[in-house]
User: Fold this.
Amino acid sequence: MQRWLFQRELEKFKGRPVFYLGECGVDHRLYREWGRAPRGERIDQAVAGQRRERTSLMAASHQGKLVAPLVFQGRCTTAVVDAYLENVLLPELPPGSVIVLDNARFHQSPTTLRLVEAAGGQLFFWPAYSPDLNPIEHLWAALKARLRKDLPTAANPFLFIANMCLYYC
Assistant:
């Protein structure tokens, strides 16, 4: 029911530019997607308990392309989202734009709402558990599939990820 109501509400924005904001992260590690062992035997391997180096991407999607991508080291927080909106995304958006976000905690800050409203935009949130409706998730899936294939051979993973992100703009 929530998904139906969301789609109905989204139709009210017809004629206004709608941007779908999203972020994804890429860990810099080599890993095996599968292992070989005799049937019925487990494969045990030591796994480091520490967090690994991570490159994160944040961008908006509009008409199947990434808009205003930001590539950074670390994880996403409210401070990162607010800085991205204020310095990267909002200056590029036309007045009256609608920004559609998922329900992550770091998107629901009062400062985020104030920033978007001050720029003449409007925030709109996805219903819970609906990433399949979000067009930017499809772009992230394609980007990650490409990274999974080519990242292990990259000399500089951060630069490789940044360049791949630009390919989807």
